[in-house]
Amino acid sequence: MEKLHTFGWYAARIAPYLPKKAFQPVPERLWAGLAHLLVALAGILAIGLIELSVWVNLVISIVLGCTFASLGFLGHEILHGTVVRKAWLRDLLGGIAFFPLSTGARLWRKWHNVEHHQHTQHEEKDPDSWLSIEELANNRFLTWIYRLPFGIRAFVSFLSLTFTFTIHSLRMFKLYLKDFSSEKKPIVWFQLLLPWATWLGMFVLLGPVKWMFAFLLPLLIGNFIVMAYISTNHRLNPLVDVNDPLANSLTVTVPKWVDVLHFNFSYHTEHHLFPGMNPKYYPLVKEKVMEMWPDRYHQMSLSMAMNALWKTPRIYYKQNDLIDPNEQRLYGSLGNGLDPNNIEAKDMDKKEKSSIRRSTSG
Ligand SMILES: [Zn+2]
Ligand SMILES: [Zn+2]
């Protein structure tokens, strides 16, 4: 593999080609957020106050799920400080945008801005990276999942995308709460409990059926949409010791109107190069990256990335490969032999096979 570089190394080489305004906050992004928020409120009120048929409720639910996801993408942007600069306003607006997904602003900044961005795809330090074969041994549930036949396991993994963000967010709360000072802990708790208290209050007020259409189903849909991106952002890439966004991240491509709805979240490599830059300018960064390091840059359509995700296991083997521990098959990662157009297990010689057998047997 070519020598890895930090995101600062790349950023320093691209920044001279970018206009100054690319580094200034863009509060106009909030208008789109307001539109999503109004649609979400109108949808919840319609389900709550009007007796509608199941089908109309279902359509509203789907729209709500899409706005939950879009607001989450905007929340991500706001909490990186690229929309408004004032810290209290950033946290307030970010908290509102993340309210449907019930993730607190402070927790998110710690989990995502600090830990994920500083240690992307680091085997131990990135809270979002997947397990290595050594770590799998300590995870009974996943060991069991990997014993399931391939088709069922892939289906279960995809189904789990409908709740992974919410569950992972609760896990992150448990993991990082201890890192907040005793003065900050109450606000972190408040930012967790307020959304959940609201959704539970809505359950009491609306009853289970309307609540399912107004919150539960949209939450599952919103989870699936954000996880479709999050799970393809890094999980086809290798684990790395140097935080090199061109090696450890993937940019997916979606139709233009989807990029508009999702605030350019698809440009994930660009985002890791310039997390403090408003995503509005990522197409510019992409142009430069493709000019300067065309062989290192990874991009593909979201559907192709999802297809690659379906066909490959999620356990890392020696950082660069993905291993199916049950069938003892090895697949490359992006930049390390994985061809998304033609996904096949690697050919292995006897020595490799026996080394894999050893690492998967205990
Ligand atoms: Zn990322
Ligand atoms: Zn980010």
From TrEMBL:
GO terms for molecular function: oxidoreductase activity, acting on paired donors, with oxidation of a pair of donors resulting in the reduction of molecular oxygen to two molecules of water. It comes from the Bacteria. The keyword Repeat does not apply. It holds the Pfam family FA_desaturase. Residues 341-362 are annotated as: Disordered. Coiled coil: none annotated. One of its GO terms (biological process) is lipid biosynthetic process. Residues 54-300 form the Fatty acid desaturase domain. GO terms for cellular component: membrane. Keywords: Membrane, Transmembrane, Transmembrane helix. The chain crosses the membrane at residues 30-49, 55-75, 144-167, 187-205, 211-230. Residues 344-355 have a biased composition (Basic and acidic residues). This is Fatty acid desaturase.
